[in-house]
Structure formats: structure tokens, C-alpha cells
Amino acid sequence: MGAGLMGTGIAQVVAMGGYPVSVRDIAADFLDKSKTKIEKKLRELVDKGKLSEQDAKNISSRLTFTEDLKIALADADFIIEAVPENLELKRKVFSELDKMAKPSAIFASNTSELSIGSLASSTRRPKQVIGTHWFFPSQVMKLIEVIVTPETSHETLETTVVFCKKMGKETVVCQDAQGFITSRAISALIAECMRIYEEGIASIEDIDKAMRLGFNHPIGPFQLIDMSGLDVVYHALEGLTKVYGDRFKPGQKMAELVDTGNLGQKTGKGFYHYGSK
Ligand SMILES: NC(=O)c1ccc[n+]([C@@H]2O[C@H](COP(=O)([O-])OP(=O)(O)OC[C@H]3O[C@@H](n4cnc5c(N)ncnc54)[C@H](O)[C@@H]3O)[C@@H](O)[C@H]2O)c1
Q1: Cβ pair 198, 252 in contact under 8 A
Q2: Is residue 83 within 6 Å of ligand 1 at its C-beta?
Q3: 1 and 43 Cβ atoms separated by less than 8 Å
Q4: Does ligand 1 have an atom closer than 6 angstroms to the CB of 111?
Q5: Cα 2 to ligand 1 centroid, rounded to whole Å
Q6: Is the pLDDT of residue 277 over 90?
Q7: Average pLDDT of 99-112?
Q8: What is the pTM (predicted TM-score) of this model?
Q9: How many angstroms separate the Cα of 173 from the Cα of each of 129, 149, 219?
Q10: Which atom of ligand 1 sits closest to the CA of residue 109?
Q11: % of the chain at pLDDT higher than 90
Q12: Which of 22, 101, 230, 254 suits 48 as a labelling partner, its CA being 20 to 30 A distant?
């Protein structure tokens, strides 16, 4: 569900894992873009000699793109939701899915931090609701963070872990608490680095450099925020602040950038400049 940045990558990985996949979005335009993106990625793999022409064809043939929820859900065993990070929207999607998906189907949310329990409570199948938090780019990143609620059944967890492994991914299992492991840990680093900058201790460039060269992080926290979108990170920090207190509070500089529409790479400016967009 959702053919955006994450849904597209996830659909590609699942199809490459040998499973038939139905990709559903609310508009044909998003589906066309998603299909084109996957075809391009498969072509790149063929050109690099990492995939045969025949395998690429087989993967493409396992993918269907549709706006029609009924068609998308027909016979779906495992439904991955990757619609925007908005609890009310996700609850609505889960409730709709619950009415139309087959009774045995498992629902997995790709939320980065929202309550899986809250999503489960919008269905009549809380035992079959779980979190599968993928990372961007899904084709490359090894981890899927699996989130269970007190109601998630053992069978649902087991099926999910086996499914992830069959797609070549590694899993970690985590209880349903705001931010799980990864979003909570990276947000703590981001919030602290923001304070280091705002206290005038070091520049953005040097903080990023310190994290890259000192800890072998592939990119620094400010580069990561620019890549993810300042609005997205700001929203996540606010959510964590509500639950865990001020240690996650987004800094003043970030608030200013968000207020002025400087959201990172996607707008051409965030903590760094990216030329005109
Ligand atoms: N972007 C990331 O790096 C990242 C990483 C991990 C997890 N996530 C999470 O993944 C989810 C999706 O994020 P994204 O970055 O792919 O968002 P996105 O905005 O790129 O894509 C969301 C897609 O969902 C579609 N959509 C909206 N309502 C829908 C509905 N009712 N049914 C089907 N499709 C619908 C939209 O049209 C859009 O194409 C969010 O929960 C986000 O927090 C994002």
C-alpha cells in the first residue's frame, strides 16, 4: 500500500525475492512513476551484470500496479503499508484493509515510529498486525526492524521473520514503543549534535565530519537530516519529545529552517545548499 519512495523499493525487493506483488496507490500517476523507477533499477542491474535479462523479465512479470484496492488485495497473504507517516491516515487504511483482505492476511506497517498497537486496534485482527520497518534505499539496506505488540501472535512474528529472511534481509525484533530501536537511537544522536552546534562548540561541517571519520558513519547527522527531509525529522523529534521529554527536542535552527520551507535536498536547501531546485 503506497507506491512512494519506500513502497517502490519494498515492492522491488519483494518481487526480487520471488513473490508476486501488487502495488497499490491512490493515483495512476504515482503508480506509473513507481513502475518506471523499478524498471530503471532492474535495467541498471542488468547493465552491471548483476542480473540476467531473463531474471529481470521474470521480476517485472511478478509486479502489478493498480489503483483498485479489491484487485490489489485479491489473494494477498502479506500486506505492507507504506503510506505517509500520519496515524489517522494509517488507521483508516488498516480499517479499510481489514474489511477487504482475506482473513488470514498479515498486515505490516512500515511506520518509522508510530504505535503499531494503535494501528492494530483499527482492525479486528490485532494478532496479525506487526511492524516491518525498512530502511532507505530498501534495495540496499540489510535491516528490517520487526515490531511486535503484546497482541501480535507468535505465528505472525515467525512468518514475518521467515519472509524477511527469504528476501535476503536481517531482522531485529523490538517491542512497540515510540521510535522502536533505530528511530529512537538516531534521533538521540541528531538532537545531541544539534545542541553541540547551537552551543557554538563546532560547525555543522565538522560535526558531520567527526561522525563520519570518528565513528565510520557513512554520512553525518546533518547530511542525514537533509536527505530525509527536515520536516520528516522535525515531526519525528516532536513525537519522541512528547513521549520521552526534552532530550529529543528539535533545536531552534531546525525550527527556523522548517518554518522557512528549507527542507533539505528536496527543496535545494537545508543545513547545506544543493543548488537551485
Ligand atoms: N522515506 C524514508 O526514508 C523512510 C524510511 C523508513 C520508513 N519510512 C516510512 O515509510 C512510510 C512511507 O514513506 P515514504 O517516504 O515512502 O512516503 P511517500 O510520500 O514517498 O509515499 C507515500 C505514498 O503513499 C500513497 N498513499 C497515500 N494514501 C494512500 C492510500 N490510502 N492507499 C495507498 N497509497 C496511499 C501516496 O500517494 C504516496 O505515493 C512512512 O510511514 C514513513 O515514515 C520512510
Answers
A1: yes
A2: yes
A3: no
A4: yes
A5: 6
A6: no
A7: 97
A8: 0.93
A9: 14, 11, 25
A10: 41
A11: 96
A12: 22
Spacing, Cα 9 to ligand 1 middle (Å): 11
Whether the predicted pLDDT of 52 surpasses 90: yes
Helix axes 230-244, 221-228, angle to 10 degrees: 110
User: Cα–Cα distance between 131 and 92 in angstroms, integer?
Assistant: 16
For ligand 1, whether the C-beta of 82 sits within 6 Å is yes
DSSP assignment string, the chain = ---SHHHHHHHHHHHHTT--EEEE-SSHHHHHHHHHHHHHHHHHHHHTTSS-HHHHHHHHHTEEEES-HHHHHTT-SEEEE---S-HHHHHHHHHHHHHHS-TT-EEEE--SSS-HHHHHTTSS-GGGEEEEE--SSTTT--EEEEEE-TT--HHHHHHHHHHHHHTT-EEEEEES-TTTTHHHHHHHHHHHHHHHHHTTSS-HHHHHHHHHHHH--SS-HHHHHHHH-HHHHHHHHHHHHHHH-GGGPPPHHHHHHHHTT--BGGGTBSSSB----
Is residue 146 pLDDT above 80, yes or no?
Answer: yes
C-alpha–C-alpha distance, residues 246 and 118, integer Å: 24
Q: List CB contacts of 260: < 8 A, sequence separation 6 or more.
A: none
Closest residue to atom 15 of ligand 1, CA basis: 5
- Dihedral sign (CA 160, 166, 167, 171): positive
pLDDT score of 276? 64
- Look at the block and give the residue holding cell 536481517: 170
Q: What cell numbers appear for 115 in the block?
A: 504505535
